[in-house]
Amino acid sequence: MRKLLEQIIGRKYYVIIVGERGSDRYDMASQIHTSRESAEAHRRRIDATRTYQYITTVSFRSRHHF
Fold this sequence. Notes:
The protein is an alpha+beta fold.
């Protein structure tokens, strides 16, 4: 049943949006995550840097597997 639903509505993925500190530029982080836990772990690593600041986590669905 799960495979059928993934084919119909797609798998759920997460991407993190980051901002460069000291500017108004926003980008997607370089990774697409398959679980919320993985995205949260990446967010914690981003918070430890001085270059980027965490903005938000966005979820989306896709039938194409990354």
